[in-house]
Design goal:
The protein has helices at 13-30, 34-41, 53-101. It has 106 residues and is mainly α. It has one domain (13-101). Helix 1 packs parallel to helix 3.
Length: 106
């Protein structure tokens, strides 16, 4: 406890700095550095400790989440292409079966 927070309800300042560094690392990795450029343009680059373990941990987490998100987007595109191929194949098979039933050569 301290005089500023006599009940001890607010988290210690170190915890907030650590959390801030982790979030910055996460954002920088997930946005491929865009959030870092934004912080730099706003003049608050010095607020983040890029050499802290918390920042590095945030970067690892941001890289993992970003990779999973990109893989998910790629998987969705692949599934769409696969569905198109299946639909095309089903349509061709239906035409072939109809031609055979009508006695036409394939």
């Amino acid at each position: 406890m301290n005089n500023l927070d006599p009940l001890g309800l607010c988290p210690p300042e170190d915890l907030l700095h650590n959390f801030s560094n982790a979030c910055a690392g996460f954002g920088d990795a997930a946005t491929l550095g865009l959030t870092g450029k934004i912080r730099e343009s706003m003049g608050c680059k010095a607020v983040v400790n890029h050499s802290s373990g918390w920042y590095s941990g945030g970067q690892v987490a941001g890289t993992v989440v970003g990779t999973i998100a990109l893989e998910g987007a790629g998987g969705a595109l692949s599934a769409t292409k696969g569905a198109d191929i299946i639909a095309e194949g089903t349509s061709a098979a239906s035409r072939l079966a109809a031609n055979r039933a009508a006695g036409k050569a394939a």
